[in-house]
Amino acid sequence: MQRRGALFGMPGGSGGRKMAAGDIGELLVPHMPTIRVPRSGDRVYKNECAFSYDSPVRGASGGALPKRRNSKIFL
């Protein structure tokens, strides 16, 4: 979690300051050769996917569908 905090400017990482897009890019450059693009038939797990529905903000939907408030449909 310390590493993730350092990347996204969360408490406990980078002195509590928000990071600019350029700063994040500079951190990612050394890891670019290790990034693997999945091919057809490869399994991609949630912790490996950059397009995950997980959100670092507690309580945020993170892109998931909104919850239905009322399950009854009146016609």
UniProtKB/TrEMBL annotation:
InterPro entries: UBP13_Znf-UBP_var, Znf_RING/FYVE/PHD. Pfam families: zf-UBP_var. Residues 35-57 form the Ubiquitinyl hydrolase variant UBP zinc finger domain. It comes from the Eukaryota. Signal peptide: none annotated. This is Ubiquitin specific peptidase 13. It comes from Homo sapiens. The gene is USP13.
